[in-house]
């Protein structure tokens, strides 16, 4: 790819999604472009870029979506999920015992492993049978990923990374070489394609937000803006879960880490309460 | 250093599994069927056993049932590693005392994930 084409592509993707495409990842990016190139019937990446320059929106959207990294696994970064399940969730349930309502958002859900991991934790507690109203919302920039997540079908390779065999057998049905998440768990999650640069207006009063392994692909300004919107959307005593390699340093005065809970944060003013949970 | 016995009638599979496990800081031993695996366990009980299902002489499930009755045979973590990937086989293995189950083909990330499940990562 010509340097000027890469520069054009990087600017377009950044404007549309906030994702930063570093020049050293050019070979990887070109590989992802090749997939779009074939899908839209272009003979070369150059031809695809040429068309992009003419502002074809469907193509620009497909290219942007193709630039997302969709690597995920069930219960990824296990210690965070353990702490959430064992300490923070019981505390949260106690705090919400009057309203019996819990709102959770998985902000970059890829193929659905993350929201389904949360669904399995909640299902273990039989909360819905106990009268709880659970809103489990899952979004991703990629419509292809949302379609996969809604399908809830995973390869034998995917289900073996993060799922104990007893949980696999209990929560999935085998379909040939693949495994499909049980319908009750699939129905617990509402999937929707969503760009984190857009307004969070339709999201409010969230008790838990999982925004993992996406901020690291943003520049500092975009990261700050997204964290600001997350702060506005998260309940004052809500919990933010970030990825293993991420910190809210762009919003250091907004969020504070929960003591002894890796990758888990709460509003800075609420640290004392959540410290007790550690 | 924890000791893992890799039980599989395929020399290639034993070699690949041992290489991954050694990379994950396990000391490894090999057995090509259930009979030699039992002999190895009687000589020195390993902390972990990676166990194939279909083998000559004594298959994996027979080995596991016998092992669990042996003195100290309840201690090793047993992870099946087999092409028998259906729920009936998985359930049978768990009922017989298997701790985890790997469906072949596997790679390093799957072994690592399964070791994390059994607390041996």
Radius of gyration of chain A: 20 Å
CATH domain class name of the largest domain in chain A: Alpha Beta
The oligomeric state is heterodimer
By CATH, the architecture of the largest domain in chain A is named: 3-Layer(aba) Sandwich
Number of domains of chain B: 1
Largest interface: A-B, 13 and 18 residues
The helix/strand class of chain A is alpha/beta
First-residue to last-residue Cα separation of chain A: 50 Å
Shape of chain B: globular
Strand order of the largest sheet of chain A: 6-2-1-7-8-10-9
Query: At the first level of CATH, what is the class of chain B?
Result: Alpha Beta
Approximately how much beta-strand content do the residues of chain B carry? Answer: 15-25%
From the structure above, extract its key features.
heterodimer; A: 278 residues; alpha/beta; Chemotaxis Receptor Methyltransferase Cher, domain 1; Rossmann fold; seven-stranded mixed β-sheet; three-stranded antiparallel β-sheet; 10 strands; B: 121 residues; five-stranded parallel β-sheet; 5 helices; 43% helix
Question: Could you characterize the architecture of this molecule?
Answer:
The complex is a heterodimer of chains A (278) and B (121). With 278 residues, chain A is α/β, with parallel strands linked by helices. Chain A has 2 domains: 3-66, Chemotaxis Receptor Methyltransferase Cher, domain 1; 78-151 and 184-277, 3-Layer(aba) Sandwich (Rossmann fold), CATH 3.40.50.150. Helix content of chain A is 45%, strand content 19%. Chain A is globular, with a radius of gyration of 20 Å. The mean pLDDT of chain A is 92. Chain B has helices at residues 11-23, 34-43, 60-69, 87-95, 108-117, and strands at residues 2-7, 26-31, 48-51, 77-82, 100-103. In chain B, strand 1 (2-7), helix 1 (11-23) and strand 2 (26-31) form a beta-alpha-beta unit. The chains are: A alpha/beta (278), B alpha/beta (121). The interface between A and B is medium-sized, with 13 and 18 residues.
